[in-house]
Design brief:
The chain is of the alpha+beta class. Helices cover 36% and strands 25% of the residues. Among the domains are: 45 residues, Uridine Diphospho-n-acetylenolpyruvylglucosamine Reductase, domain 2 (2-Layer Sandwich), CATH 3.30.43.10; 96 residues, CO dehydrogenase flavoprotein, C-terminal domain (Enolase-like, domain 1, 2-Layer Sandwich). The protein has a 5-stranded antiparallel β-sheet with strand order 4-5-10-6-7.
């Protein structure tokens, strides 16, 4: 690890000021950023620690939404009675992230800001049509994810919370890459007030909505309808873990399992 300066913030305003002043990076749970720094994939000269900002933590119900603070740990989401009662699919997703260390250190905001192509949380945010709140604005899920490790966040912009609409039904299923515990393919399926939404992670450079599956499930919300969809392999990842064609097949399989789990 190389030398860097660590600054602590006790408010969102202070964190934003420190980031603007230093040109550094925010440090949430550190499960992605610290690993990248060790490999020299990221080399910020300054880190602004967000762990002391109380306003960024917590889970609450607001009408038809569950609002989760950006610094809320995965383990806290998984254990939350509010989340388990309103969106059990989200609690189950959080419980399946990484290992125990990652779940007790990693945060919702950090995972979304990093936007790893195989991360689980982006699928929930996009699949539920959530809204990402920052210190400057609100960003709809459909506008937030831009590409591999790329989001709509501007320099120095901080995620403060995420509002998840409570769906009629929802479930998440992933085909796990055993070494990393990331999703080789993960599919989040939700019946929402605005219709069926299907979000796919792990299969491409960034999370995306599967419109073919959405159309099929809008007509018949059944596992058979999902299995019958033949996803295109165009643009899907090709690596030692699986070909684009294999991933395309897995999308329909995971979607069918998610529909079954959603009941």
């Amino acid at each position: 690890m190389y030398s860097f300066e660590l600054k602590k913030a006790d408010s969102v305003a202070k964190a934003a000021a420190l980031l603007a002043e230093s040109g550094g990076k925010p440090l949430a749970g550190g499960q992605s950023l610290v690993a990248a720094m060790k490999m020299r994939l990221a080399q910020p000269g300054t880190l602004v620690d967000l762990s002391g900002i109380a306003e960024l933590r917590g889970i609450r119900r607001e009408g038809d939404n569950v609002v989760i603070g950006a610094m809320t740990r995965h383990a806290e989401v998984a254990a939350s009675k509010d989340v388990q009662g309103a969106i059990p699919a989200l609690a189950a997703l959080a419980e399946g992230i990484g290992d125990r260390q990652v779940r007790n250190m990693g945060t919702l905001g950090g995972a979304l800001a990093n936007n790893d192509p195989a991360a689980c949380y982006p699928a929930a945010v996009l699949g539920l049509g959530a809204t990402v709140h920052t210190n400057k604005r609100k960003i709809a899920a459909d506008d937030f994810f831009k590409g591999m490790y790329e989001t709509a966040l501007a320099d120095g912009e901080l995620i403060t919370a995420v509002s998840f609409p409570v769906p009629k039904k929802a479930a998440y299923m992933k085909f796990v890459q055993p070494a990393s515990r990331f999703a080789l393919v993960g599919v989040f399926v939700a019946q929402t007030a605005g219709g069926v939404r299907v979000a796919v992670t792990g299969a491409a450079a960034s999370v995306f909505r599967a419109k073919l599956l959405e159309d099929a499930l809008a007509k018949s919300f059944t596992a058979d309808a999902a299995k019958a969809v033949r996803m295109s392999a165009a643009g899907l990842n090709n690596d030692l873990h699986g070909s684009p064609e294999y991933r395309a097949h897995l999308i329909s399989v995971m979607a069918a399992r998610a529909v079954t789990a959603a009941g």
